[in-house]
Design brief:
CATH architecture of the largest domain: 3-Layer(aba) Sandwich
CATH class of the largest domain: Alpha Beta
Number of helices: 15
CATH topology of the largest domain: Rossmann fold
Shape: elongated
């Protein structure tokens, strides 16, 4: 039995300075945050620390500046958006270590929030460098990880630093993420347990498919990865995206599902077009895809079939869109699955990445039991892997 992860409420934060690793790796349009979901997700932890008399110092990465200071990767837009959401002053240091960080942290007043500049401006962050971690922790008393989306990476701010801090814990978001995913990973999920997997590549999902086959009753496949399963059964899929080197694997997975008495469903119809930029598509049976056509979404009969299973499910995990949902012509499948899952009275988890963007676009995020902020981290946790940033928080 694993040692429990220490939580924020296990620590006495009053009068102390708390280093909070957040995930503010948000999309930007110049100097404006275009999606503040990850910033909003951190608000409960920030507010809890302030309510209990702690001073908050936030740290995050943004993008891939490759260990160099680049203005386009500054956290300034995130700091500005956080200030709007919190209605308080957010002071952005000019760096995450050194004199600039020291001054902002040591001058911090109770009502203010400090934010350190992009951790990835230093190559030592991704190298999990202990000396860099010591610099990060110089002027703080407590470490809190609320960056679930970064917890599967052994980087200095999520792995080396907490090892150096006797007072360390999971933030409210990380605690909620781990609890939700461990409920599905446990031995007795409520049944029927249905998993929906989409996205582009079978190769990205091999391990999670293998693990889910040990636990689920039904596995519903969509997205471009469904084309590989269709081709593996000998169907002609025109110019659809197919992983030719994964056809044998797809056949093996279909066989394994049959042997384990798991319903593995692949589309019975698809929406096709001759271009990714097409403004409309045509629904067709999977047996009649034209040689110049691409399957870009699951079709209406498949949406209905998948929807029936999702509505009666008692546990659901979804990762990956059902089609090219960014183009409205190919969004019906993803949105249809999102609506059916929202109608389920069971325990429903959306597993990060494009799936989250889809449920937000559909306006349904509030209707699920849990919407994960970490695509890669949620899959790894579900696969049974140990996340470095979580393991280091165990008491």
């Amino acid at each position: 039995m694993s040692t429990p992860v220490r939580t924020l409420d296990d620590l006495e934060v009053g009068g102390r300075t708390v280093f909070v690793r957040v995930d503010f790796n948000v999309p930007l349009d110049g100097t404006r945050v275009t999606d503040d979901t990850r910033i909003r997700a951190a608000l409960p932890t920030i507010k809890r620390i302030q309510e209990r008399g702690g001073r908050v110092v936030l740290a995050s990465h943004l993008g891939r500046p490759n260990g160099k200071k680049k203005p386009e990767f500054s956290l300034e837009p995130a700091a500005a958006r956080l200030a709007e959401l919190m209605g308080t002053e957010v002071l952005l240091a000019d760096d995450c270590i050194g004199d600039g960080a020291k001054k902002v942290i040591t001058d911090l007043r109770e009502s203010q929030i400090a934010m350190l500049e992009n951790l990835r401006f230093h190559p030592e962050e991704e190298a999990d460098d202990e000396l860099f971690a010591r610099e990060l922790g110089k002027y703080v008393d407590i470490y809190v990880n609320d960056a679930f989306g970064s917890s599967h990476r052994a980087h200095a701010s999520v792995h080396a630093l907490p090892k150096l801090m006797p007072m360390r814990a999971a933030g409210l978001l990380v605690h909620k993420e781990v609890a939700a995913l461990e409920k599905l990973r446990g031995n007795n999920p409520d049944r029927p347990y249905v998993a929906v997997l989409g996205g582009a590549k079978v190769s990205d999902k091999i391990e999670v498919i293998e693990v889910l086959m040990e636990r689920v009753d039904e596995l519903l496949i969509g997205g471009a990865m469904a084309n590989t399963f269709l081709a593996a059964q000998g169907l002609k899929v025109g110019k659809s995206r197919v992983e030719e080197d994964k056809l044998a694997l797809a056949r093996t997975l279909i066989l394994k599902a049959r042997e384990r008495n798991i319903q593995l469903l692949i589309p019975v119809d698809v929406v096709v077009a001759d271009s990714l930029k097409a403004t409309r598509g045509n629904a067709t049976d999977v047996n009649t895809i034209g040689e110049n056509e691409m399957a870009l979404d699951i079709g209406p009969r498949t949406v209905q079939q998948y929807g029936e299973r999702l509505r009666r499910a008692k546990s659901v995990f979804w990762n990956g869109p059902m089609g090219l949902f960014e183009n409205p012509a190919f969004a019906d499948g993803t949105f249809g699955v999102a609506r059916a899952m929202a109608d389920s009275t069971g325990f429903t988890v959306v597993g990060g990445g494009d799936s989250v963007a889809a449920v937000q676009a559909a306006g349904l995020a509030e209707r699920y039991s849990h919407v994960s902020t970490g695509g890669g981290a949620s899959l790894e946790l579900l696969e049974g892997k140990k996340l470095p940033g979580v393991e280091v928080l165990r008491a």
